[in-house]
Design brief:
heterotrimer; A mainly alpha (about 300); B mainly alpha (about 300); C alpha+beta (about 525); B: about 300 residues; mainly alpha; MetI-like fold; C: about 525 residues; alpha+beta; 6-stranded mixed β-sheet; 21 strands; about 30% helix; globular
Chain lengths: ~300, ~300, ~525
């Protein structure tokens, strides 16, 4: 997995090529991409806030109204306990975005710091950190998460910790690769010559310049984490009922897919919308950061 | 070349030791008593204690770890607690279905991702690009059990083209049975592959040597295959090697939906039953695979791009 | 239709065996309802798979029993639609009037390797289960001696009168295997290549995938099995099984999800067959958890449970409200009134308890157990109305079993198909729930009711059948008035088969008699 050592020149070359190209790109779609992404995510968040008022209790059961198809009264239909699926989907927004964003960015921070330290100091800190990263990446992700959930007891905390521990290695790898490139750059040398402390060089000069690929990747990672939460719910390792959460709503509905498709499908659609939102933000962000970097230098 | 190989192989050793440690720690940290689970809740405490001794669970943890590691070195992984047969016999028959599924899925994913990425990169920011990205993002964000069931419903039940579940007995049946699962997984991993390939293609399309090739009057297709694709493959290969690691255990949901006898579902079952030898061996096997896939990836770079020093 | 006819005949036959004091069974002839066509392969998708096929190293769960009953025979056998045993390898039997001596006369049968079934083989099996470490020692530990006066006769003497012993020997844990073969092969190898006298032999077993059975040409029920072979496929996913059935990928499935029953029935291609199970579906309490030690509190929780609504919404009208913690088996009494949903009574009982303001209660259940998840959420809603604040926790089976086994829980639920009696009589579970105070503490409940323990002891060892029935009825009333649990429904098994499958049905204990199944193609 330590591909980075061998394709350092590759990265350098790619970087330069990208920088040269930026000016030629059309700006129209780029701006649209970022804003469309933010708009989609905002739409879901606003809807969930409105939902708080429209549906004060998303867990309210009405067994006489179980498994009703979508209608004006219940736009997403009702589930096997007669609960409004839209109400539960909206109420689930906070947990899902919270866990996905939290786990992703905690992993990002952890990974970027470790990766930067490894790439900056080289030598034994690098060896220790990167061997550790390789062990984490070599462990089957599912085993790691299932084991952590089992150790921590059922609930969303275990999922959160599991996703973080399973996820940071990739960021560490990305950050180290970028740091290796930066080591050769003049401004890092300049900062070192000026007698700045290592921490200051890393914090003020290195990290802002190496975080771009991690930020861009994190957008896919958020979507990936949302689907992992859903898969874990499918395996029964997630939030505890009746807490509304997208993964568990979709998983609960799966045994009704044949006769009440709406329970899984409509919340699934919301996940897809959010996923598209984050992907667009990721694309937009990539272009913006690229452009900004070109200007800075 | 050989110096590089030796260095890489030496680096692998601490990683493998780390994997055995973590694998061992995981099974012993997870609460739950294998003997109690095996005998079911109705078992008498005396019988549980008896079985614990029989399974060697009454030994000290270092002794158990030593038994695991020293066994693993000689490829003897002990007896599965739940199946009561050698671990190798439990895992062995499931390797092929899993490998078949992973390879098939990667092929499906590449079949989707490569042409679409080329289309997307050529018409960068145009509507085909937007459509392609919308499509893969959609399949990426879909929970795989949902997508799998949808495909089964349409192609298995409504149209009756493919079996709804199982693995079959002959190679042709395996191929037919794995088609829907492979499409399910392939659609999922096509998105990151496409994304990576597209970015790299855009970079190489714009690069000087591509311009140079065009200037030399080479046909666009020739330029595409000879120069652009080749140079875009490196990070895509890296990504694929990472995806193999994810898929080893990440196919568990698809295996469950399609009743496939793969390693992912075995792993989850073994964790549930606290089948320590099977969990440890599988974790080790997956770790080995990931480490060696990445080693192979490094070597592959040299083939794709001779400039890479080994 | 073959099943219905067979059931009727067998029920009549069984009635004969349980009538008098000294009993001799009717002849062991196969029920002659030959199907229109024979041959073919039955593909059966199951939610379970066997752990081992050696009856003596059992993991004691239905996935293994369901397979073993096709491979092995027992002295007597259970059939669909009746709780009385029919002759198996024992052609006839004689029970002494004190119900302490059972004499079995073996029929002329042979194992699939051609060797004859002898009294020595029977003695071998009974001696192996009569072992304090065996999970079913509760049942078999009462054998004082097993003797074989001749090669076709087995005499079992018991320590105490036990009417139910005739059923105990029908349990697949006491399967008859060739003594010479198993001793030669060892338990391990025998578990992989079992030899029995059952209707089928093991052709192939790919773990996690399929168990393939072929007809045993030596089978003693003439004309049976009708099928040439059976493929039992391991298909744990509920949706997949249903889709497999509807697409014709398989001929029959087990454990149809309640939510999918209508789907199957309306398809026109297949039909769901319901059979009352030997299972218990209760919310179980740990009485060491302070709030639950009081009878009044447990009664209040029973009154606060909308049984009728649960029956309708969760079980789609296909299950009966339970009037007993025990399963609905032989000697179940209809006369005991189930709890009625009455919040006023529940509140009054809570007010009189030591916790008038209510308490917190955590219910544990298995992840993947969708039925309990649904029921538990209804209970959470309902019990909050009497001040009981319910928290739900799903654990994987491993953790749940370990927690329960270590008494580390407040309340738990098991899936409706899991907590099943292996016998169609009450002995096993009554002892387990009410008369095992020292080892498993009355099925982990720490239920403490001396009258229940006494009634169980008397009922199991009664020497008169009418007396046994009366005692079990009394036990049912006593343990409902002072409930160890909240009994919910008597859950049914749900198998489904395509229209050309005949004679496929559950035995009440959770397995099938596949020798009676035929395909009409």
């Amino acid at each position: 997995m330590s591909v980075v050592a061998s394709d350092q020149d590759q990265l350098d070359a790619a970087l330069d090529r990208r920088l040269a190209r930026v000016g030629r790109r059309s700006a129209r779609w780029r701006r649209f991409t970022l804003e469309a992404g933010i708009a989609l995510i905002a739409l879901v968040i606003v809807a969930s806030i409105v939902g708080e008022f429209v549906y004060p209790n998303p867990n309210a059961q009405d067994l006489a109204q179980a498994l009703l198809p979508p209608s004006l009264a219940h736009p997403f239909g009702t589930d096997n306990l007669g609960r409004d699926v839209l109400a539960r989907t909206l109420a689930g927004t906070w947990i899902d975005l919270g866990v996905a964003l939290g786990a992703t960015y905690l992993a990002l921070v952890l990974g970027v710091v470790c990766g930067t330290v490894a790439g900056y100091f080289r030598g034994w800190p690098e060896r220790i950190i990167m061997r550790f990263v390789e062990v984490v990446l070599a462990l089957p992700f599912m085993v790691l998460v299932i084991a952590i959930v089992a150790i921590m007891g059922p609930g969303i905390t275990g999922v959160f910790v599991g996703l973080t521990i399973g996820g940071w290695g990739f960021y560490a790898r990305l950050a180290r690769a970028e740091m290796l490139v930066l080591n050769e750059k003049s401004f890092v040398h300049a900062a070192q010559t000026l007698g700045y402390s290592h921490w200051r060089v890393m914090w003020r000069h290195a990290i802002p310049n190496l975080i771009r690929p991690s930020l861009v990747y994190s957008m896919s990672d958020i979507v990936l984490n949302i689907t992992w939460v859903a898969s874990l719910s499918y395996l029964g390792l997630g939030v505890q009922p009746p807490t509304p959460e997208w993964g568990s709503i979709i998983a609960d509905g799966q045994s009704y897919l044949l006769n009440a498709w709406w329970i899984s499908t409509l919340p699934g659609l919301v996940v897809v919308i959010v996923g598209i939102g984050f992907s667009l933000v990721g694309d937009g962000l990539a272009d913006r950061l690229r452009a900004r970097r070109a200007v800075v230098r | 070349m050989s110096a590089f190989l030796r260095k890489r192989l030496l680096e692998v050793i601490p990683v493998l030791i780390g994997i055995t440690l973590v694998a061992f720690a995981i099974v012993h940290l997870v609460p739950g008593d294998p003997a109690q689970i095996l005998l079911g809740p109705r078992a008498r405490p005396a019988a549980v204690a008896d079985l614990q001794a029989q399974l060697g669970l009454d030994r000290s943890l270092p002794a158990q770890y030593w038994a695991f590691v020293s066994g693993a070195v000689t490829f003897s992984f002990g007896q599965s607690f739940q199946f009561r047969q050698p671990v190798a016999d439990v895992i062995g028959p499931r390797i092929l279905p899993s490998a078949f599924l992973i390879v098939y899925s990667l092929v499906v994913a590449l079949t989707i991702a490569v042409p679409l990425a080329i289309l997307s990169a050529r018409r960068r920011d145009g509507w085909p690009d937007q459509l392609v990205r919308l499509f893969t993002t959609t399949t990426f964000a879909m929970p795989s059990f949902w997508l799998g069931l949808l495909l089964t419903l349409v192609f298995g039940l409504q149209l009756g083209w493919l079996p709804t579940s199982g693995y079959g007995d002959t190679p042709l049946e395996h191929f037919r049975s794995l088609t829907l699962p492979a499409i399910t997984v392939g659609l999922w991993i096509a998105a990151p592959l496409l994304r990576s390939l597209r970015t790299n293609l855009i970079d190489t399309f714009d690069a000087e040597f591509t311009e140079a090739a065009r200037a030399r009057g080479l046909g666009e297709l020739r330029v595409l295959f000879k120069h652009v694709l080749r140079n875009s493959l490196i990070s895509t290969v890296t990504l694929m090697s990472l995806l193999i690691g994810v898929l080893l255990s990440g196919t568990v949901v698809v295996e469950s939906v399609f009743s496939l006898p793969g390693l992912g579902s075995l792993l989850v079952r073994a964790v549930t039953a606290r089948d320590f030898p099977v969990v440890q061996t599988l974790t080790l096997l997956f770790g080995f695979t990931v480490v060696f896939v990445s080693l192979a990836t490094d070597l592959l770079y040299a083939v794709i791009d001779p400039r890479v020093r080994l | 239709m073959a099943a219905a006819a067979a059931a009727a005949v067998l029920a009549a036959c069984g009635g004969g065996t349980s009538a008098g004091g000294d009993t001799t069974a009717a002849s062991g002839k196969a029920v002659d309802t030959a199907p229109a066509s024979t041959g073919g392969t039955l593909r059966l998708a199951r939610s379970l798979e066997p752990v081992t096929l050696n009856p003596f190293t059992c993991a004691c769960e239905n996935g293994s029993w369901q397979t073993m009953v096709q491979l092995f025979d027992t002295l007597v056998e259970f059939m669909p639609g009746t709780s009385d045993p029919v002759p198996g390898l024992a052609e006839s039997w004689k029970v002494s009037s004190d119900k302490k001596t059972f004499t079995f006369h073996l029929r002329d049968a042979s194992f699939s390797d051609g060797s004859p079934v002898t009294a020595a083989d029977v003695k071998y099996a009974l001696d192996r289960v009569n072992n304090p470490k065996h999970p079913y020692y509760v049942l078999y530990g009462m054998m004082k001696s097993v003797t074989t006066p001749d090669a076709r006769t087995v005499v079992v003497r018991l320590r105490e009168p036990t009417i139910g012993f005739l059923w105990y020997v029908g349990h697949p844990a006491a399967s008859i295997v060739p003594k010479a073969a198993i001793e030669r092969m060892g338990d391990e190898a025998f578990g992989r290549r079992p030899i029995g006298s059952g209707a089928f032999t093991l052709k192939r077993w790919v773990k996690g995938q399929v168990v393939e059975l072929a007809r045993n040409p030596h089978y003693w029920r003439k004309g049976q099995p009708y099928l040439d072979s059976v493929e039992m496929l391991y298909t744990p996913n509920d949706n997949t099984r249903t889709l497999d059935l509807l697409s014709g990928n398989v001929d029959a499935v087990d454990a149809v999800a309640f939510s999918q029953v209508d789907q199957v029935d309306h398809s026109g291609d297949a039909r769901v067959l319901f059979q009352l199970s030997s299972g218990m579906y209760n919310v179980w309490f740990n009485e060491r958890y302070a709030s639950l030690a009081e009878t009044g509190v447990r009664q209040a929780l029973n009154y606060a449970t909308p049984l009728e609504q649960i029956r309708r919404v969760v079980f789609g009208d296909r299950a009966d409200v339970a009037n007993s913690s025990l399963p609905k088996l032989k000697d179940w009494s209809e006369g005991v009134e189930p709890y009625t949903y009455d919040l006023d009574k529940a509140r009054a009982l809570m007010a009189r308890s030591s916790m008038p303001d209510g308490f917190d209660l955590t219910i544990d259940f298995a992840s993947g157990d969708e039925t309990s998840k649904q029921v538990a959420q209804i209970l959470q809603d309902e019990w909050s109305k009497i001040g009981v604040n319910v928290k739900l926790r799903q654990y994987d089976f491993g953790t749940l079993y370990t927690r329960v086994g270590r008494f580390d829980y407040e309340a738990f639920m098991l899936p409706p198909d899991v907590y099943t009696s292996d016998l169609p009589i009450l002995d096993q579970f009554a002892q387990f729930l009410f008369n095992d105070p020292d080892v498993l503490h009355n099925a982990w409940t720490w239920y403490d009711n001396e009258e229940a323990a006494r009634l169980t002891e008397q009922a199991v060892h009664a020497s008169d059948e009418a007396e046994q029935t009366r005692l079990y009825g009394e036990l049912q009333q006593v343990t409902l008035d002072d409930p160890p649990s909240v009994p919910l429904v008597f859950p049914p098994f749900r198998a489904a088969a395509r229209s050309d499958v005949k004679g496929f049905q559950y035995v009440q204990t959770g397995w099938w008699r596949l020798e009676q199944v035929s395909l009409e193609r």
